[in-house]
Amino acid sequence: MGRVRFATLWLGGCSGCHMSFLDLDEFLIDLAELVEVVYSPIVDFKDYPENVDVALVEGAVCNEENLEIIKKVRQNTKVLISFGDCAVTGNVSAIRNVIPMSVQSVLQRSYLDNGDLNAALPVAEGIVPRLLDKVVPVHDVVPVDIFLPGCPPSAPRIKDVLVQLLETGAVEGRPDLIKFG
Amino acid sequence: MAQKIVIDPVTRIEGHAKITVHLDENGQVAEARFHVVEFRGFEKFCEGRPLWEMAGLTARICGICPVSHLLCSAKTGDAILAVTIPPAAEKLRRMMNLGQIVQSHALSFFHLSGPDLFLGFDSDPQKRHVFGLIDADPDFARRGIRLRQFGQEIIEVLGGRKIHPSWAVPGGVREPLSEAGRQHIKDRLPEAKQSTLIAIDRFKKLYEKFHEEAMSFGEFPSLFFGLVGADGGWEHYGGQLRFVNSDGEIVADWLDPADYREFIGEVIQSDSYLKSPYYKPMGFPEGVYRVGPLARLNICSHMGTPMADQELKEFRYRFHGTVTSSFLYHYARLIEILCAIEKIEEMIDDPELRHGLLRAQAGINQLEGVGVSEAPRGTLIHHYEVDKDGIIRRMNMIIATGHNNLAMNKTMTQIAKHYIKDPTSVPEGVLNRLEGGIRAYDPCLSCSTHAIGQMPMIVQLLDRDGTLLDEVRRDS
Predict the structure, then answer these.
(1) pLDDT in tens, B304-358
(2) What is the pLDDT of residue B455?
(3) Which residues from A are below 8 Å from B458, CB to CB?
(4) Cβ-count burial of B465 within 10 angstroms (0-12 exposed, 13-18 middle, 19+ buried)?
(5) Which residues of chain A does B262 touch, with a Cβ-Cβ cutoff of 8 Å?
(6) Residue A106, pLDDT above cutoff 90
(7) Mean pLDDT of all residues belonging to chain B
(8) Who among A43, A123, A127 is closest to B35 (CB)?
């Protein structure tokens, strides 16, 4: 059997989950033997490929680009892991949902009220993706196979899930894996 | 006919971005631009929440340098409480920031830019990543991974976890350095130092191969901005703000962070979620300045530790004083890692870190506060207005990567003009150099728009009217 085709994706989040993934430290060297990284912010492939075995998805769905890519990821991925609290619940990325007219007001504060020169909203069509009215967790848009909460999930928990998945093809739903914050 | 090239997503950077290259009517490069494409809106949604939440909440702006926001937010809280924090608390905060400089710079140098530097900008994109580096040079890659781990462990030893520790608070910190933690850090210091020295040595030998990059990756005069200590030395936590020009002359000194609005303006550009700060007295766009490792080395008189001071001398000798090429951010980053390790070494046995007072207690004494600290990638400013109960009424943040926005755009144009000879066929290695120009700044886009995530990158070719003619994504 060839190496497992592995991807990581970063939607609306702080990258802390990816940093926690890098906190696997020297296990990354072992992991490189077991998986082939076919898409990730830390490699140079620009398009999400077909036939991906496992994908870690960090972040909430915040803008039109997030929406587009998560659908493509679902279509081409066997096991999709909702990776970290933003992906699982929306978390900090979704705090803006409670503000009335959230898109208009967050943009207004940052670019109109807190800008000096040329105060305007960034709107370049095709370049700057439009924000969604409501930030949603990943499973709101596509089915998710495994939930790995945490802000971020610690490296030992990430390792635990990946090792189980690589060894047995499934992850046992243990209570200690369900830890938020 | 005029055209534009797009790189999307920009990879191996910490955030979501695109690059566009605009051509003039003769088909030659007119300019190139860097676009940040993510936004979460912290400045708005923090309003109405208590000051006490800000350290933990703003840390979630960025998973790469959460400690920067944690400390800057705590310092802003100190100002609102109107307290002087206990000396032990300041030392501990400094120690955590040094740990963060080590981990973040190691990530930038080894994991993100290492593949370009050690495998080559033109090397096979299929293997041009940290796993490729592990394959090609396992010992060196392992050193890089362990150096980052060392920095992360300092954060964990102090704050209880590596990412998003809830440790620094307005008034001080929550926990001292434990004895076990002291021992652990001390045991790992020699290896960390050795790895850094090896990396510095490797970079110096390698540098000869990168003359062209050094001359085109943002080689231009600009101001440099950041904190310096009371004696003018290298600083990352306290001190005052200074602007220096490319001739090494001090343009403004002893600036009080609370007055930042007087010397920093922010301009909005409609094609990016990243605002562009500029030095107000010189206006826009003349007031372009750079922050981060290169700037901190250019503005300070000395590093303050023996080996890093020696390296700074050599750095300045090699590049004739003030260093103006952004490619040399990489070199500056390594000197800062060395300095951070030496400073940790100097302070590790200080008994105050384990037994001192940790926290000044006070309520809301000021309705407004500004905090500043040096994040790994540059100066970070938090500014809060609160009501008498400490509820946030207004917030503004100016983030390290934002300061560099104008410089990053200039760098893109310089690289595009230098390397794109024939816009109808742009080699992959040239696209990667555009991305490499961005990577030199180690931008953290999550931070800079208080929003960002992955850094995908596209190069788009646009005509003079902005019509998309071609789009280049490197496919697997």
Answers:
(1) 999 999 999 999 999 999 999 999 999 999 999 999 999 999 999 999 999 989 9
(2) 38
(3) 46
(4) exposed
(5) none
(6) no
(7) 89
(8) A127
Pair of tokens at residue B367: 């309705």
Taking the CA atoms of chain B, what radius of gyration do you get in angstroms? 22
Give A129 or B81, the one with higher predicted confidence: B81
C-alpha to C-alpha distance for A53 and A38, rounded to whole angstroms: 10
Asked if A47's CB is within 8 angstroms of B476's CB, the reply is: yes
Least CB-CB distance to B39: which of A126, A131, A155?
Answer: A131
Q: Do B451 and A115 touch (CB under 8 A)?
A: no
Whether the CB-CB separation of B426 and B5 falls below 8 Å is answered with: yes
Count of residues for chain B?
476
At which residue do the structure tokens 């384990």 appear?
B354
Interface touch A115/B64, C-beta < 8 Å: no
User: Distance (Å) from the C-alpha of residue A176 to the closest C-alpha of chain B?
Assistant: 17
ipTM of this complex: 0.90
Contact A61, A88 (CB under 8 A): no
- The DSSP line for chain A is ---EEEEEEE-BS-SHHHHHHHTTTTHHHHHHHHEEEEE-TTS---S--S-EEEEEEESBEEEHHHHHHHHHHHHTEEEEEEESHHHHH-GGGGGGGGSTTHHHHHHIIIIIIS--BS------TTTSPPEEEEEE-GGGTS--SEEE--SSPPHHHHHHHHHHHHHHSS----GGG----
Q: Are A138 and A4 in contact (CB under 8 A)?
A: no
In 3D space, the residue among B271, B364, B457 whose CA is nearest the CA of residue B80 turns out to be: B364
Tell if the CB–CB gap between B62 and A15 is shorter than 8 Å: yes
Q: For B451, phi and psi rounded to 5 degrees? A: -150, -35
Tell me the nearest-neighbour CA distance from B356 into chain A, angstroms: 30
B73 in contact with A at a CB cutoff of 8 Å?
no
Predicted confidence at residue B449, as pLDDT, reads 39
Q: What pLDDT was estimated at residue B450?
A: 37
Give the Cα separation of A145 and B219 in Å (integer).
Answer: 49
Question: Quick check: B11 and A44 CB within 8 A?
Answer: yes
Could you tell me the CA-to-CA distances from B46 to A53, A127, A139, B347 in Å, in that order? 38, 27, 26, 36
What's the predicted TM-score (pTM) here? 0.92
Q: What is the 3-state secondary structure (H, E, C) of chain B?
A: CCCEEEEEECCCCECCEEEEEEECCCCCEEEEEEEECCCCCHHHHCCCCEHHHHHHHHHCCCCCCHHHHHHHHHHHHHHHHCCCCCHHHHHHHHHHHHHHHHHHHHHHHHHHHHHHHHHCCCCCCCCCCHHHHHHHCHHHHHHHHHHHHHHHHHHHHHHCCCCCCCCEECCEECCCCCHHHHHHHHHHHHHHHHHHHHHHHHHHHHHHHHHHHHHHCCECCCEEEEEECCCCCECCCCCEEEEECCCCCEEEEEECHHHHHHHEEEECCCCCCCCEEEEHHHCCCCCCEECCHHHHHHHCCCCCCHHHHHHHHHHHHHCCCCCCEHHHHHHHHHHHHHHHHHHHHHHCCCCHHHHCCCECCCCCCCCEEEEEEEECCEEEEEEEEECCCCEEEEEEEECHHHHCHHHHHHHHHHHHHHHCCCCCCCCHHHHHHHHHHHHHCCCEHHHHCCCCCCCCEEEEEECCCCCEEEEECCCC
pLDDT for B287 beyond 50: yes
Q: Do B146 and A26 touch (CB under 8 A)?
A: yes
